[in-house]
């Protein structure tokens, strides 16, 4: 949670997750862990998508989505280590910023 904190808003961004970019205990165990996470995520995201793909969104839900996209954009541009590294090391800005949402909103 410390990493995903928007200091200028005094807000946590997101609802949790795993962050393990410094995990280097045992290559075989670490790789097995990463594979398990990937396989579990793939299964779960398919199940969630099946349940929600035909759901109608309310105007209020759409508003919340756009505001969350704004927070995501703020985080990526101000704090994200990968974005900072890519931009500061001469990377392709279009490729680095490709994850930005096409539409976002701020309040």
Could you outline the blueprint of secondary structure elements for this entry?
Blueprint: E1 5-6, E2 11-12, H1 27-52, H2 59-78, H3 81-88, H4 93-96
Antiparallel strand pairs: 1-2
Describe this structure in words.
The model has no long low-confidence stretch (mean pLDDT 92). The two termini are 23 Å apart. 0% of the residues are buried. The protein is globular and about 50 Å long. The protein is mainly α and 107 residues long. It has 2 domains: 1-55; 56-107, no CATH class. It has 4 helices and 2 strands, in the order ββαααα. A hairpin with a 4-residue loop joins strand 1 and strand 2. Strands 1-2 form a two-stranded antiparallel ribbon.
Beta-strand residue percentage: under 5%
What integer value in Å does the Rg equal? 17 Å
- The helix/strand series, from N terminus to C terminus, equals EEHHHH
Biggest sheet strand order reads 1-2
Which of globular, elongated, flat, extended, rod-shaped describes the shape?
A: globular
Total strands: the figure is 2
Low-pLDDT segments: none
The biggest sheet amounts to: 2 strands, antiparallel
Provide a count of the helices: 4
Q: How many domains make up the coordinates?
A: 2
State the helical fraction.
Answer: 40-55%
CA(first)-CA(last) distance = 23 Å
Q: What's the mean pLDDT score?
A: 92
Structural class: mainly alpha
Keywords:
4 helices, two-stranded antiparallel sheet, EC 1.3.3.3, 107 residues, globular, mainly alpha, 2 domains, 4% strand, Coprogen_oxidase_aer_sf, 54% helix
